[in-house]
């Protein structure tokens, strides 16, 4: 069974840092690109970042570029999101997501981890 | 970035109603569009991918159509479990973007 399980969320002050993890199982992790998507409370969905299966290509939303870094450890089947210089507007549930079998959609979602940026 | 405009942002409907939601892209995206359903407290679930293909296990009362800039999600006969929020998403180019959502409420 394909699973993505996020962890690492919590409460942090503005300007602080946090690292999220996403543990993958049930598939060949090193063969798939993975994304982070976030959702602020009561709001819509925002794509955050992408990393290619081999880690050699990354892309970011303008809202997080230069502050967030996506990375992966294929030997540990784990995806990461290092978040620095956090802002109140980064408060959201963060999901790791992937496209497993379908075209042009995310068919696998984790359950999400909540990040709250507040003083 | 490609903007997706969903309408309506909310609607009230009754069990058995036919419901249609639209999603308009700010530029052509071919068929690189998905529709998701989200129940509060849960991650989104894909209903439709590649504009018109039904996701795994999704009831056939859901259907998607369109290409280029104009897309629709239809529910042929609304069921109690369909009261949720629906989002469209484009996968044509980065940054990947989502529509603002449509909340379906019980009339």
Structure commentary:
- The complex is a heterodimer of chains A (119) and B (107).
- Chain A is an all-beta fold.
- Chain A has no helices and 11 strands.
- In chain A, strands 2, 4, 5, 6, 9, 10 and 11 form a 7-stranded mixed β-sheet that branches.
- In chain A, β7 (68-73) and β8 (78-83) form a beta hairpin.
- Chain B has 107 residues and is mostly beta strands.
- Chain B has no helices and 11 strands.
- Chain B has strands at residues 4-7, 10-13, 19-25, 33-38, 45-49, 53-54, 62-67, 70-75, 85-90, 97-98, 102-106.
- In chain B, strands 2, 4, 5, 6, 9, 10 and 11 form a 7-stranded mixed β-sheet that branches. In chain B, strands 1-3-8-7 form a 4-stranded antiparallel β-sheet, with no helix packed on it.
- In chain B, a hairpin with a 3-residue loop joins β5 (45-49) and β6 (53-54).
- The radius of gyration of chain B is 13 Å and the shape is globular.
- The termini of chain B are far apart.
- The mean pLDDT of chain B is 97.
- The chains are: A mainly beta (119), B mainly beta (107).
- Chain A binds chain B through residues 35, 44-47, 50, 59, 61-62, 95, 101-107, 109-112, and chain B through 1, 31-34, 36, 43-46, 48-51, 53, 55-56, 87, 89, 91-92, 94-101.
Decide which structural class fits the backbone of chain A: mainly beta
Counted by DSSP, the helix tally of chain B is 0
Tally of helical segments of chain A: 0
What are the low-pLDDT stretches of chain A, counting only 5+ consecutive residues below 50? none
Oligomerization category of the chains in this entry: heterodimer
Characterize the overall form of chain A: globular
| Percent of residues in beta strands of chain B | over 45%
Instruction: Give the rounded overall mean pLDDT of chain A.
Output: 97
Q: Pairing-aware structural class of the strands and helices of chain B?
A: mainly beta
Radius of gyration of chain A: 14 Å
Largest sheet of chain A: 7 strands, mixed
Low-confidence stretches of chain B: none
Largest sheet report of chain B = 7 strands, mixed
Task: Give helix % range of chain B.
Answer: under 10%
Report strand % of chain A: over 45%
Termini distance of chain A? 40 Å
What share of the residues of chain A lie within helices?
Answer: under 10%
Cα distance spanning the termini of chain B: 36 Å
> Main interface pair?
A-B, 21 and 29 residues
Shape of chain B: globular
